[in-house]
Specification:
Elements: E1 7-17, E2 22-32, E3 36-47, E4 50-52, E5 57-59, E6 64-78, E7 81-93, E8 95-96, H1 98-103, E9 106-129, E10 132-152, E11 157-177, E12 182-203, E13 209-213, E14 220-235, E15 238-255, E16 263-267, E17 270-281, E18 286-297, H2 301-305, E19 308-310, E20 313-315, E21 324-336, E22 340-365, E23 368-391, E24 396-409, E25 414-415, E26 423-432, E27 435-444, H3 452-456, E28 468-479, E29 482-489, E30 509-517
Parallel strand pairs: 20-23
Antiparallel strand pairs: 1-2, 1-30, 2-3, 3-6, 4-5, 6-7, 7-9, 8-9, 9-10, 10-11, 11-12, 12-13, 12-14, 14-15, 15-16, 15-17, 17-18, 18-21, 19-20, 21-22, 22-23, 23-24, 24-25, 24-26, 26-27, 27-28, 28-29, 29-30
């Protein structure tokens, strides 16, 4: 981060993927000294239409352009005080929604633009010791904007929808050291969201425009306040983490423009949540642990105020929602040796008062079934995670991981919606001097356990998402300030789709990337 002697450096990165599926370029400028460090970066990406495997071919439309800028400054005001200033922004142009055009008879449906901006200012100060050891204050400002433009075949009207969310946050965190074995983090957080939403109907014949109610009630606001205290205890072979958090949400919406008039709605749900974990070191290499945590998610503006076309359905507002609550338990084992690393975890997540979409019988809008949201279900997710790494020698490394989740809607006695299938990755790595090679296998089992909502989703094939197996090859060469990487992805040209996605993954392709540091 900092350097005793001031110096400048720069990095240029480029990547190209066959069939014009991607061209990426990035430039960075860095400066380091004993008191100041900063980085400036600019990224430009051009994505062509995604070419699927086997018989899928070109998936048109799916290409778009993206630009991003980032800057970060770290400044030591004195030996105990550090100031960080950062800014990130990203914009995407003409991003098409492929499944809308191919499956739902749209002439076009794209996002123009999608953009995100984030700025934050953080002050960290080492105070000394005892109850107040370190102080951190962070102010942040974030803006997300999305504009959707679409026209359905045979329609007399084109539509333009725009949503903008502005978020301001302030966090105060205090780090305390009470003894050699006991420390704590205590803090306060507040975030405020404001949503502006609009929709215009444009007549194709004369381009006249009529303003309508947006996807969300315009000028809706949400405030999120929390106070927390996390405690860390370490003694003998035990490490204990325990914390408690109070969270209150204030949501305000006024909707008098739509056919489903909510009027003025204000809710202020609050809750205490907690976490507790204990780790026991069996020896210097092995440990076991157990953890328990509770969670709370208040209804947000999207839950309560949505009116319009969302995914494969038409959604209308819900005004009587209450918070979701969750309870998660996990046990695990870890081994960290010189040649071997292993971790295994079992988890159980219980979801109560789950906010889900409910279809309104015999009601359609524009050919789409109509849904609203309700706290009407209890569900659980159980499963395991597994990771293993073996260093065969100084050149060869093998690694594998796998995840499985079983989700069940207890209320409806059916599978929980959008649960991913069993999936994992296995790779063999070789490194010798300037060279690196990797053979990678990524896979997913079929997902045949479908909720009714999955069966209604046109992005999920009838009967479920088939399983798939990908074989990827990578090679890299580094010499001084130049790093070259190339690879062949999906070597077998497998036709596959991530469960719930509206587009198939890329077929066989070759990429080449070059990174040059000055």
């Amino acid at each position: 981060m900092f350097a005793k002697k001031a110096n400048w450096s720069s990095t240029i990165y480029g990547k190209a993927v066959s069939a014009n599926m991607e061209y990426t370029g990035r430039a960075e400028l860095n400066y380091q000294s004993s008191a100041v460090a900063f980085q400036l970066g600019f990224t430009n990406k051009q994505f062509g239409h995604l070419v699927g495997g086997d018989s899928t071919g070109v998936q048109d439309p799916s290409g778009y352009n993206e630009k991003a800028f980032d800057a970060k400054l770290k400044w030591k005001l004195n030996k105990n005080t550090l100031l960080t200033i950062a800014h990130q922004q990203l914009i995407q142009h003409d991003v098409p929604l492929y499944h809308r055009v191919t499956l739902e008879n749209f002439n076009f449906y794209f996002f123009e633009p999608q953009q995100r901006k984030l700025s934050y200012l953080r002050l960290e100060k080492n105070v000394g010791g005892g109850i107040l050891n370190k102080l951190s204050i962070t102010w942040s400002s974030q803006q997300n904007k999305e504009t959707r433009k679409y026209l359905k075949n045979g329609s007399l009207y084109e539509f333009k929808e725009s949503d903008k969310v502005e978020t301001v946050g302030l966090t105060l965190d205090l780090f305390s050291t009470f003894s050699k074995i006991f420390s704590a983090n205590t803090g306060v957080e507040y975030y405020h969201d404001r949503v502006n939403s609009s929709k215009s109907q444009i007549t194709l014949s004369d381009r006249s425009m009529v303003m309508q109610r947006g996807l969300y009630p315009d000028d809706a606001t949400s405030g999120n306040f929390s106070v927390y205290s996390l405690h860390h205890v370490s003694f003998n072979k035990f490490q204990i983490e325990a914390g408690i958090r109070f969270n209150q949400v204030s949501l305000n919406m006024v909707d008098t423009t739509s056919a489903y008039k909510l009027g003025s709605i204000t809710i202020k749900p609050s809750s205490f949540v907690s976490n507790f974990s204990i780790l026991y070191k069996i020896n210097s290499l092995q440990s076991i642990y157990g953890s328990f945590s509770s969670g709370f998610r208040a209804p947000n503006i999207d839950d309560m105020g949505t009116l319009g076309l969302v995914d494969f359905r038409y959604e209308i507002p819900a005004y009587d929602l209450k918070p979701e609550k969750s309870f998660n338990a996990e046990i695990g084992y870890k081994l960290i040796g010189k040649k071997t690393k292993l971790s295994v975890a079992l988890f159980n997540l219980q979801l109560n008062d789950l906010i889900t979409r409910v279809q309104i019988p015999a009601l359609q809008v524009g050919g789409y079934n109509v849904y609203t949201k309700a706290n009407n279900q209890q569900s659980y997710v159980r499963g395991f995670e597994f990771e293993y790494q073996l260093n065969l020698n100084q050149h060869f490394t093998a690694e594998t991981n796998a995840t499985y989740a079983f989700g069940q809607n207890s209320t409806r006695n059916e599978p929980l919606r959008r649960v991913p299938p069993f999936n994992g990755r296995t790779a063999f790595n070789y490194k010798n001097g300037h060279w690196k090679f990797c053979i990678e296998n990524m896979y997913a089992a079929s997902q045949r356990r479908l909720a009714q909502g999955d069966k209604d989703d046109n992005r999920i094939p009838i009967g479920g998402t088939p399983g798939w197996y990908l074989l990827n090859l990578y090679a890299g060469y580094t010499i001084q300030s130049v790093h070259i990487q190339t690879g062949m992805m999906n070597l077998l040209n497998t036709d596959y789709r991530m469960h719930g996605s509206g587009i198939n993954g890329a077929g066989r392709n070759i990429f080449c990337a070059l990174k040059f540091t000055l």
